[in-house]
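>> received
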Amino acid sequence: MITLYDIPSDIKVIAWSPNTWKTRFALQLKGLEFETVWIEYPDIADLCKKIGAAPSGTKDDGSPDYTLPVIHDSSTNTVVSESGLIARYLDKAYPNTPALIPQETDALHGAFQEAFLLTIEQRILPLMLPPTNAYLHPPSEAYFRRTREAKFGKKMEEISPGGPVREAQWEKLRGGLTKLAEWLELDGKEKLFFTGDRVSHADLSIAGWLIWIKLILGVDSAEWLAVKTWDGGRWGRFMEHFEQYEKVW
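>> returned
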């Protein structure tokens, strides 16, 4: 049995984090049985140290940065941190399931993640941090607010104020998604996924961050309905494919 460690919230499906959704999508795409254990933000570091999960990076002060997702696979007694490393582990441990990082695409996936950080992640963050904060449980809300306010150098409520500032942030995100659409059509052919007709980890990265908007702002929100229409409706069609993997347990 695989255990996925995730961060809870008060939204209906509980799961919200874009990074843990990448792994949640991956496990379901591969048809692997798993369970979820919910961990509040302040408890993540202690959990990781207890089960032997490696830090996913380093904080500005040089200390280890422990984050989720983390999985524990009891069948191999293996603990893996970070969605990209988890994808690589799952491909090796379960070779008879759909590949998340197809052979010979490791370097391309690494480059994609760097580009995706600049093109999409940094543009979604200011839009989604304030509304997400409102749905977190008290221990996580306090941690989330403190760490994100320190990162942005302003109060949570000032990260994406209403009016022209927020409208400009949405337009910036729209430009980023249009850039992804242009990459997908470089050969002159429209395709839904980065590896053609198969879903890869690159696609799961996009889906993980877009579902964050969908779940926190709501399927009927004006913002989500607008995102679905961008680039000729590409992102609405793209996310329809992942509805089959939106189960949470």
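>> The first strand starts at residue 2 and ends at 6.
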